[in-house]
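Schema walkthrough. Field components (list of strings):
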Amino acid sequence: MIDIDFESLKGVANQLRIHSITATTAAGSGHPTSCCSAADLVATLFFGQMRYDAKNPHHYNNDRFILSKGHAAPLLYAAWAENGFIPVSELAKLRQFGNDLEGHPTPRLAFADVATGSLGQGLGVGVGMALAARLDNLDYNTYVLMGDGEIAEGAVWEAASLAGINKLNNLIAIVDANRLGQSEATAFGHDIGVYAKRFEAFGWRTEVIDGHDIEEIAEVLSGVGLDNKPLVLIAKTYKGAGVSFLQDKDGWHGKPLNQEEAAKAIAELQPGAKSGIGLPIPAPSQLPAPNNAAPAGYPAISYNLGDKIATREAYGTALVRLGEADQRIVAVDGDTKNSTYAEKFFQKFPNRSTECFIAEQNLVAVAIGFGTRGKVPFASTFATFFTRAADQIRVAGISQSNLKLVGSHVGVSIGEDGPSQMALEDLAMMRAIVGSTVL
Ligand SMILES: Cc1ncc(C[n+]2csc(CCOP(=O)(O)OP(=O)(O)O)c2C)c(N)n1
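Field assembly_structure (string):
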């Protein structure tokens, strides 16, 4: 964290709130109160903590930021306007047909690595990114902002587990614990020690903080990477924070303010607001860029006419051959690698292989994370078990992810094991994915 006076950061946070309210009021829809609760966290991250080139969001060693609670998109857009990447005037086009500033972020925006908004998916993608940073010997950190309602999703805990197992101290989760969900209070409200215990159980270092105290946020963030564990900030916040008639009030989720209400809110926020334009942003360190270039060609594998080779075994052999030619290739598997034959790759290239254990939603999310970092991920398990990750796969389509899913034991081929192991429905599912090719 570089030296930025906390008063400035408080001002920027209010400016982000103003943008979020103004844009959603203009759009006539959106989630302004979900933006307001996280504004102090986002201001501190984007203006002093994260090391990145704001002119080049794709810089290979920029710190990554995943807005897992994608409905707070206006806050993300406001941050990238206040750091100078998009003109502030663009924010007024939020949610307009044909504009890339959609209601939830997608990678059509240079600063969004993945589509978010289907809650619970960001942390798994962050695990993939953090693993990719290690593989490439880069020192960027991956920050994932989640809602407290969101972390009821099981996929979050699949990801938390793998992050703990791999001691990903370059991964930072932030829980914006504003007590409220969409239709009512979250199960644990502001009893946020519950979340700390859960993350601790998964091998994380936990910090329970006041998510509106910029000084405290900055202080705990200055400890990023000092441990051999992933770090989670459980930030106690208030939904609608900063606006007296919204703050901590139920019934305001996903509701824009009308013109009059917006004017009243802005009148409260404006005196303490400050633009972020011109504030110094720490640069990414200059480490060698990874070689993510595609090879000129791939080796052919020939079999003799009449040879009988199981398709899964041929997959394992082919993946190794591809991996020899193309160092972008990484493999992930869900404790089936001796059946899918991904183990051939795991044995040959252990540093490019990740065992994700029996957690298929996370298996797919981790692969997506690798894909965002220029890798070519191959994820394998029994074909039928990919249906568990239907939503991650669907969102990968929206993200235009480079993702190879390899399912073994297709159709009724595993007949003796019974129908629970047979891949039948998955073909229909895969064929519905935008941009997909099914072989
Ligand atoms: C998987 C999924 N289920 C439901 C929704 C609908 N939804 C959008 S926001 C929201 C509440 C989120 O609450 P929280 O995570 O606490 O975020 P907050 O807006 O309070 O910051 C819900 C249920 C969704 N987007 N994704």
